[in-house]
Design goal:
Layout lengths: L8 H13 L3 H27 L14 H12 L2 H11 L9 H23 L25 H33 L3 H10 L7 H34 L12 H28 L7 H31 L3 H12 L3 H14 L1 H5 L2 H4 L2 H28 L15 H24 L5 H10 E6 L2 E6 L4
Antiparallel strand pairs: 1-2
């Protein structure tokens, strides 16, 4: 790290714990604003449950709408946690320190939000248990356990459980710090949550070991979640544009692309809101910008592979679907927006060091990426379904209803609200990680110059 500052333990405690130990006025304003949007979205969900899915803009044959598009989007965002936390922890990347918890928490809230959308989409959430459990033995009605739609909840809840455990394990030392700095009821709550953490060598060893094991165990789950989501589409042989074997890696790398971009957005907001310029520095945006270039290029490779090979076979139906996707209104406008915002605007900008070190530019380019990635899911789902029926008179346009839009907007407010409440209860930048970075730092002599370095003993 070239720009680190010398910080004492007391200063780190004071800087990173102030959002928890004090409450600025803007916190209540944000809480009320986001809570209001979530309440309106909750009302829209209640209306949907009362009236049924007919209140959405769905029609035959487009039966998957904004809710399924947003479900795929939030599952993608959830991949930030593993990419930035588990992998960077295992590789001991030094620049991971200020962003790992934000990535882990973003994973938990985005995944929990994603899990609600298939339930809302069904219109009758209490009946979704029939998808998994046998309910009519006498007539021999059994769920199809081979369907990826059945495996979706298994993968998502396994990933959610692992991610929540991961957050809890890494929080233990910080919970003990909060326990020692609070009184009354908060002290009792933090005492219970910290599980008797005293910072003994044995506890540090076990906590580190648990973190490494969870990092390693969660990686295959991370790959399986979006692979199974991709099979929801890839196994549907009757929908043009969906039946392709490249969907699993294409979806996984796309999820990493949008998830890492979301972490950049969150880092910029944390730096502005909490004035953490000493902890979330330009060099961190520089490092994650380099990572984003690699991830974006890998995603673009799979996108080009999927698109070009769909045309290579010259199947009339597939060519017609691509023509609809790229040349016909309004999909042509959305396609141009998608490809510009997901790749051609941000990636060339990230090639410049000045852009990668500019927090505002990194914030806006990361927002562009996620606009593009949401549009990508829209362009996969809607044009494909629009051509599902064999007869052209059955093809119909899809216009999202206000109810769907309210629910989608509410999901973004819900994730932001969860992160805001989390920041009031727990530190968003790991206190113990910041202190460890200070302990491991050193200056080594290279020729005539002293160079900042990290010294580890094995």
């Amino acid at each position: 790290m070239q720009e680190r500052k010398d910080l004492s333990d007391s200063q780190i405690n004071r800087d990173l714990l102030w959002p928890v130990l004090s409450t600025p006025l803007w916190f209540w304003g944000l809480l009320l604003g986001l809570g209001g949007v979530v309440a309106v979205a909750g009302g829209a969900v209640g209306w949907w449950m009362n009236r049924g899915p007919g209140v959405a803009g769905i029609n035959r044959p487009i039966m998957w709408e904004l809710l399924i598009i947003t479900f795929v989007f939030w599952v993608g965002i959830s991949h930030a946690g593993v990419m930035l936390s588990a992998i960077l922890r295992l590789t001991q990347a030094e620049w991971r320190r200020p962003m790992v918890r934000a990535a882990e928490v973003l994973t938990v809230f985005s995944l929990a939000t994603a899990a609600m959308f298939p339930l809302f989409h069904s219109g009758r959430p209490w009946r979704t248990m029939y998808w998994v459990f046998p309910y009519d033995f006498s007539r021999g009605i059994w769920p199809n356990v081979r369907s990826p739609l059945v495996w979706d909840p298994s993968a998502i809840f396994t990933y959610l459980t692992g991610s929540a455990l991961f957050v809890l394990i890494t929080l233990l030392p910080d919970l003990a710090v909060l326990r020692d700095r609070t009184t009354g009821i908060p002290h009792k709550i933090y005492s219970i949550l910290s599980l008797g953490w005293r910072g003994t060598p044995r506890q540090w060893k076990l906590q580190t070991l648990a973190g490494i094991l969870l990092s390693a165990l969660i990686l295959p789950v991370f790959v399986s979640v979006h692979s199974i989501v991709s099979w929801d589409f890839g196994m549907a042989i009757s929908v043009e544009g969906w039946h392709t074997t490249v969907f699993a890696p294409y979806f996984v790398i796309g999820a990493v692309h949008s998830g890492v971009a979301a972490v950049v957005t969150m880092m910029a907001v944390m730096r502005w809101l909490f004035r953490w310029e000493d902890y979330i520095r330009a060099e961190h945006f520089d490092a994650i910008g380099r990572l984003l270039i690699v991830v974006a290029l890998a995603w673009f490779f799979f996108f080009a592979l999927e698109f070009i090979f769909s045309l290579y076979l010259r199947e009339p139906q597939e060519v017609a679907m691509r023509q609809l996707q790229v040349f016909e209104w309004p999909f042509n406008m959305l396609f141009i927006l998608f490809i510009l915002t997901a790749f051609f605007i941000p990636v060339p900008l990230w090639l410049f060091r000045k852009v990668r070190r500019n927090v505002a530019l990194m914030f806006w380019t990361s927002i562009l990426v996620n606009i593009g990635m949401w549009l990508e899911r829209f362009l996969i789902i809607v044009p494909g379904l629009a051509r599902k029926q064999a007869f052209t008179f059955d093809w119909s346009a899809y216009r999202p209803s206000p109810i769907e839009m309210l629910i989608v907007i509410g999901s973004f407010a819900l994730v932001c609200l969860g992160l805001l409440v989390f920041s009031k209860i727990f530190p968003l930048v790991p206190v113990n990680e910041a202190k460890e970075g200070q302990v491991l730092k050193a200056d080594i002599q290279v020729g005539k110059r002293k160079v900042p370095a990290i010294v580890r003993e094995h």
